[in-house]
């Protein structure tokens, strides 16, 4: 069987480099031929477009502006996986989260796929089932806190955190997105179907990778839904999904703590659900690696679906 020709536009960035490492590994040795471009060619949008148009599938691991610049030059025949925020809510683009109902089928015939954002992946995994199954109303006032390792900030932030002279304040958690205008908000709202964007509080801390996304719930605003119903419905929604595990209600580690780095180096996503003793409140927690299910792992998983390969090929 001929190998698929794949090009990674932006292979020097954090996500692109991770995707390249995976595709260059033994899992894809007989399946993928990686196309390359010269250092000079990387600076020329027309040269990049030529290589993209010679591929069966291309990853765009670029800033939003660079993705938008090259797309008008790309043939409709080439399957595109874009990892920026440029097209996540754009008409004609399919959202790359296979575990959501209907998405895997849509991905099988898609030519334009937007890979989810890291913070957004956790929020959507928790909230989409609530809305889709009628467990929460679309106008529920959702809030979300999300803790990430510094690798999510790309090369510049990685260099800052790994400098021998760590900048003042970097050794403690740092909240950002303080103007409540984070780039992931449009997809967090659109893909879940909620009527307003959540109040979203992202936090970066001094560890390399791993992400913990939390969504609290007030049960009195859920019109009679109980914590047990939420837990059972969430488990049923993701039943049979190899990359997502839903733990039973209140099943947490013995020490009562969940480390944001617990799934570092994997492409899994785990969901924990806890409730207060009187059942009046819940906490939904999505745990995963921002470099795995939050970026490169998700991108490779989508590629596998688009190309008809086993979905977990090359995943850790």
Describe the structure.
By secondary structure, the chain is of the alpha/beta class. The protein folds into two domains: about 5-115 and about 295-305, NAD(P)-binding Rossmann-like Domain (Rossmann fold, 3-Layer(aba) Sandwich); about 120-290, Dihydrodipicolinate Reductase, domain 2 (2-Layer Sandwich). Helices cover about 30% and strands about 20% of the residues. The chain is built from nine helices and 13 strands. A seven-stranded mixed beta sheet has the order 8-9-7-10-13-12-11. A six-stranded parallel beta sheet has the order 2-1-3-4-6-5, with helices on both faces. Strand 12 and strand 13 form a beta hairpin. Helix 1 (about 15-25) crosses helix 9 (about 290-305) and helix 5 runs parallel beside helix 7 (about 185-190). The longest helix is centred in the C-terminal third of the chain and has 16 residues, at about 290-305. The model has no long low-confidence stretch (mean pLDDT about 95).
């Amino acid at each position: 069987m001929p190998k698929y020709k794949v090009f990674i536009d932006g292979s020097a960035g954090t996500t692109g480099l991770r995707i390249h490492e995976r595709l260059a590994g033994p899992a894809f040795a007989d399946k993928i031929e990686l196309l390359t471009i010269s250092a000079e060619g990387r600076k020329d949008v027309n040269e990049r477009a030529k290589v993209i148009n010679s591929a069966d599938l291309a990853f765009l691991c670029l800033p939003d502006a660079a993705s938008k610049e090259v797309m008008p030059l790309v043939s409709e025949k080439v399957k595109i996986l874009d990892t920026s925020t440029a097209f996540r809510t754009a008409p004609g683009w399919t959202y790359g989260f296979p575990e959501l109902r209907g998405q895997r089928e849509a991905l099988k015939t898609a030519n334009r796929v937007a890979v989810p954002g890291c913070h957004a992946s956790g929020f959507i995994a928790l909230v989409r089932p609530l809305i889709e199954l009628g467990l929460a109303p679309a106008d529920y006032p959702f809030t979300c806190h999300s803790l990430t390792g510094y690798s999510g900030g790309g090369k510049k932030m990685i260099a800052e955190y790994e400098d021998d002279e760590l900048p003042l304040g970097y050794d403690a958690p740092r909240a950002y997105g303080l103007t409540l205008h984070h780039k992931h908000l449009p997809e967090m709202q659109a893909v879940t179907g909620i009527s307003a964007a959540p109040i979203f509080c992202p936090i970066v801390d001094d560890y390399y990778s791993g992400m913990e996304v939390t969504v609290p719930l007030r049960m009195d605003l859920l019109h009679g839904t109980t914590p047990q119903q939420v837990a059972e419905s969430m488990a049923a929604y993701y039943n049979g999904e190899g990359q997502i595990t839903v733990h039973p209600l209140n099943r947490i580690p013995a020490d009562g703590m969940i480390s944001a780095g617990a799934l570092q180096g994997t492409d899994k996503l785990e969901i924990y659900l806890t409730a207060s003793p009187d059942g009046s409140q819940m906490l939904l927690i999505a745990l995963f690696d921002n470099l795995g299910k939050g970026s490169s792992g998700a991108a490779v998983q989508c590629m596998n679906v688009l190309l008809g390969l086993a979905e977990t090929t090359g995943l850790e």
